[in-house]
């Protein structure tokens, strides 16, 4: 915004047709009998070597409904020393969010009876979340590790592997092919509204 250049204008020209084509899209909510929290987390760690910035994102579903989502591109150089650390911090962020949502639902007298499922596409993160033997090699993320392990031990959370081709949070962190983007978008219940407005 402070110093626009030609590449910025080119990006804007790509975004505007998408926005125009999705003006009638909205988040659809459905009645869902089994109440359970399912989350997807993804981090695109320092993808561009020039900037060394990471993008992280997650989405949380309550039943079939998208309840919470987050994505952010770091404004500073990546603080994580590896992709595993970056992914683990991403999982820690979504576990904090789901812990807050579980407490909120309990206060609303709808306590969850099942553990929250958290999916990430990094096998090492899944292993690190439940294996006590690897802690010595990961002292710099010890707080996040202990927090997630406490949640796993209390059976509030299960961290599971989900291949990248099924990782819904990729919609926040990566440029996707149109078919995959459209599939992920519809899986998040973002679709054209069927409700008629006062003008329509």
TrEMBL record:
Q: Which domain of life is it from?
A: Eukaryota
Q: What is this protein called?
A: Ribonuclease H-like domain-containing protein
Organism, by scientific name, is Tanacetum coccineum
């Amino acid at each position: 915004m402070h110093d626009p250049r030609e590449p910025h204008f080119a990006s804007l020209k790509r975004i505007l047709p998408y926005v125009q084509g999705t003006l009638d899209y909205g988040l659809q909510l459905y009645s869902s009998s089994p109440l359970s929290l399912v989350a997807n987390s993804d981090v695109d760690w320092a993808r561009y070597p020039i900037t060394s910035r990471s993008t992280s994102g997650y989405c949380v579903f309550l039943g079939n409904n998208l309840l919470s989502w987050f994505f952010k591109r770091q404004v500073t150089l990546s603080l994580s020393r590896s992709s595993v650390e970056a992914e683990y911090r991403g999982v820690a962020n979504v576990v904090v969010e789901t812990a807050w949502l579980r407490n909120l639902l309990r206060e609303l007298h709808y306590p969850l009876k099942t553990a929250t499922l958290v999916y990430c596409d990094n096998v090492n993160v899944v292993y690190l979340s439940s294996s006590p033997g690897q802690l010595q090699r990961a002292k710099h993320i010890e707080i996040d590790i202990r927090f997630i392990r406490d949640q796993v031990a209390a059976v509030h959370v299960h961290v599971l592997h989900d291949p990248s081709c099924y990782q819904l949070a990729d919609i926040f962190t990566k440029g996707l092919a149109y078919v995959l983007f459209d599939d992920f978008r519809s899986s998040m219940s973002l679709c054209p509204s069927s409700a008629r407005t006062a003008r329509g």
